[in-house]
Amino acid sequence: MNKKILFPPVNQQMELIKRGTSEIIPEEELVKKLEKSLKENKPLNIKLGCDPTRPDLHIGHSVVLRKLAQFQQLGHQAILIIGDFTGMIGDPSERNSSRPSLSFEEARENGKTYFEQASKILDRDKTKIVYNSEWLGKMSFEDVIKLSSKYTIARMLERDDFTKRYKNGIPISMHEFLYPLAQAMDSVAIKSDIELGGTDQKFNLLVGRDIQREFGLPPQVILTMPLLLGTDGVEKMSKSMDNYIGINETPKEIYGKTLSIPDDLIYLYYLLTTDVTDQELKSIKQDLDNQQVNPRVLKRTLARKLVEMYHSSNAAIEAEREFDNIFVKKGLPDEIPTYSFEKGKSVIDILELIMEVGFASSKSEARRLVEQGGVTIDGEKINDIKYILKLDIERILKVGKRNFVKIICSK
User: Fold this and answer.
1) DSSP SS3 for 396
2) Between 175 and 318, where is the model more confident?
3) What CATH number does domain 251-328 carry, 3.40.980.10, 3.40.50.920, 1.10.240.10, 3.30.300.30?
4) Total Cβ atoms within 10 A of residue 337
5) Biggest alpha carbon distance in the chain?
6) Cis before 9 (ω within 30)
7) Which residues are registered as beta bridge partners of 67?
8) CA-CA distance, 283 to 304, in Å (whole number)?
9) H or E element in which residue 348 lies
10) pLDDT at 242
């Protein structure tokens, strides 16, 4: 006899599930699945596919992971599918060109890293981890042909990114059409009841519903989450855009980056990246509408919460203290890394120095940092890209808001 699972009432489950959600397709089917789950005392299979091409997670990735964690809290089975096989194809979603594929070994290694980081959000002991090579790798060419016959090219071209590329004459490889079908086979293999994804995954998730029907299975409900804008407030959070807050970053980095987000993103960040209550959200909304409340106060609280989530409350207190010391009191960090030059080197130009200590990867990037006023030596701003620094005494170089290094000259 199955152990009795204490599922909350369906209306309470729906209240939590709908929080922050972009779309549920179709919502009435989700309600029926929850009712059946409650009646049969059987958890639903909640699927989330993981793209192993991006092993470093940021809080943009946390949005959908946190939704998966909420399903765990409600008593359902979280299934994390590591796309070690589909990683060799490369998901073309939101791409203007074909994405480079990974080797099987790279996909597997990235998948391990992904799960280690995701475990900061999910209940590790209640998360089922599977690799889609377990079933996709066993499919014969005959199986692939039969699967391909279940979907038309016309349907594939309904996808926005494929449509744009086709109209603009940008090549679309045949293997890219196989990605949504392979992702759909994941849903078939694990008998997915609900699949989660970002809004950019909507097409792929819908294909999963269609292919499940073809295999005689009840179609999954799909639930999409918003794509979190990055710290620039313009582009989707992405490491390549350098507008991300990494969940594995230091407390100092998480705190400082959070304070840099635009004011109009404060509410959304609270909603999608934290566990604040609905009552707290209401209060935050009121404070944001109140011109007498400085939004920076809300951002400081948000920054502390994020550091606490991925590190500890003590780390949050220390990160705030150090931030205030550097940026409010104009002090210096407690610990500054050092860089020593070889004996005999007496001078260095500012651009070479910035590259030498690793604060820029190219001369053009170093020049941009100087021209934007982001470089100081011993607290004095350096505006001249031809500035020559004498290596005669110990000095403090600061580049950007949080990069410090102590320059030491070997005697």
Assistant:
1) strand
2) 318
3) 1.10.240.10
4) 11
5) 80
6) no
7) none
8) 18
9) strand 347-349
10) 81
